[in-house]
Amino acid sequence: MIENKPFQTIVTHLLKMRPQILLFGDSITEQSFRTGGWGASLADTYSRKADVLVRGYGGYNTRWALFLLQHLFPLGAVKPPAATTIFFGANDAALLGRTSERQHVPVEEYKENIRRIVNHLKECSSTMLVVLIAPPPVDEEGRMKFARSMYGDKAMKLPERTNEMAGVYANQCVELAKEMGIRSINLWSKMQETEGWGKKYLSDGLHLTPEGNGVVFQEVIRVFNEAWLSAAEMPYDFPHHSEIDGKNPEKAFQQKCL
Amino acid sequence: MIENKPFQTIVTHLLKMRPQILLFGDSITEQSFRTGGWGASLADTYSRKADVLVRGYGGYNTRWALFLLQHLFPLGAVKPPAATTIFFGANDAALLGRTSERQHVPVEEYKENIRRIVNHLKECSSTMLVVLIAPPPVDEEGRMKFARSMYGDKAMKLPERTNEMAGVYANQCVELAKEMGIRSINLWSKMQETEGWGKKYLSDGLHLTPEGNGVVFQEVIRVFNEAWLSAAEMPYDFPHHSEIDGKNPEKAFQQKCL
Q1: Smallest Cβ distance to B102: which of A53, A60, A246?
Q2: Which CATH architecture has domain B19-236?
Q3: Residue of A nearest to B32 (CA)
Q4: ipTM for the whole complex
């Protein structure tokens, strides 16, 4: 049928597109392509194998993230992402009665919102690799110092986030992953295994230094490798240049064009 | 018609996808998501506005790049890239009779190959912003030093690339852009405006240091801004978090969801 020809051409193009890895989260995801960022390192690792797309929304909590779901992950997409990281909680855990309370989401609702996000992704694609990343720890002293450097005497007198509360959200995130049988990274715990984590991994008590980005990158790679998304085991899209015969280049491309 | 429904749904999804910026080139493009890389910086700049995809193929010359065209830029795609950078020449300019001669492509053929790439992209999408990037200069001393560090006494005795020859290819690249009425970046000239460019911008006499990546990033941004692809003028995909009313978040999302 003539009518079906463009349809099939489009579907064929889409199916031939390389896999996509989507990074969904708040500012820690949005900033992941800055110097030393974990998103950029993933894009470098999966170069010629998968595309890494950043969907980070600074300041967002899970309640607001729900509004984006149908736009970022439309149901019925021919080629949904092969893998998605979900990295929220740092803003949900902002304390009531402090300067960032408009971002606060109660921990029970946080857990349910993440569950809704995961369920939507699974409806979008039952084979999608979904990885939850719990929020990082909070260095309260670093937060206060940052606030004073920004606002001087007008800075908050009490931290708007505490490490203890971030831990409550991190635990619920990891707990939910267990309940749903999906993979997770307990960044809150992992970072605190290292002496001096507050200054080493956090630039302002909350966001990541290049070293902190390195921890997220290593953890994501570890989980991807444990699943089926190991870059080392994925084929190159086209021949490595050393496989190309300078006098007869066609041969290599006939053999290997994904 | 029922048959057309999925077709239209798919096309609608595709048209709603954010614009793509594709980086097509050799190793200098493939490595552009390493720490301080120009590709990662572009992805950061266009976050929430456009996706930056790396299509870099280490060791490739323009002759081999032609084999990839129909795969990377299929004709009839519903949503071709909004912009593409074409960044070849460093390998084409490898000298005959030296250690990298299998990568050599005569300069006349190099120019014609780039012309074929541009023509294919224009056939793919007449509105695509196509930017040619000429190869960087070569620091012959840096190349020799790198070879000795890798191969010791077995290293090449004569450089496999010269700065003079890289300049010949860069000139042809810029010349072609003028002929075709498209934009170009003369990286070879630009980098040599700075004292000590060899060590400052090149890590092994050919590939880029973080500072060298910074030059490419600034030049690409300058050209994109001069065209119609200024990140500052592109809308955010969803509301900035400060626009969201904590008590009535729906409102912001009803007003602004691209």
Answers
A1: A246
A2: 3-Layer(aba) Sandwich (3.40)
A3: A44
A4: 0.93
